Amino acid sequence: MNDYSWLDGIDEAQIKRERAKARQLRRTRWWQQKTAAGTCYYCGQRVAHRDLTMDHLVPLTRGGRSTKDNLVPCCKECNNKKKSLLPIEWEDYLKRFL
Ligand SMILES: [Zn+2]
């Protein structure tokens, strides 16, 4: 059985709302400017504009919100890593780019 105890207290309706907000923010000038350089926030690599995804620094499932200071452009590789790694492994992965 998976351990979903960290989901306690997080409202699914809230997550849906924040996801919708993120989608709206993707269409703004603010996001265009943020992705204009084509640089991944985590690894710093330059990637094609279309390969940048929008990532929540604090994931919605952990109570993060779709606010401008919680949203960063991120390459697909980092995005996949962030999803598949444990938080501690993700920290180690990030250290490689410091
Ligand atoms: Zn990256």
From TrEMBL:
One of its GO terms (molecular function) is endonuclease activity. Pfam families: HNH_5 (PF14279). Residues 29-80 form the HNH nuclease domain. InterPro entries: HNH_5 (IPR029471), HNH_nuc (IPR003615), NA-targeting_endonuclease (IPR052892). The keyword Transport does not apply. The keyword Coiled coil does not apply. Keywords: Endonuclease, Hydrolase, Nuclease. This is HNH endonuclease. It comes from Desulfofustis glycolicus DSM 9705.
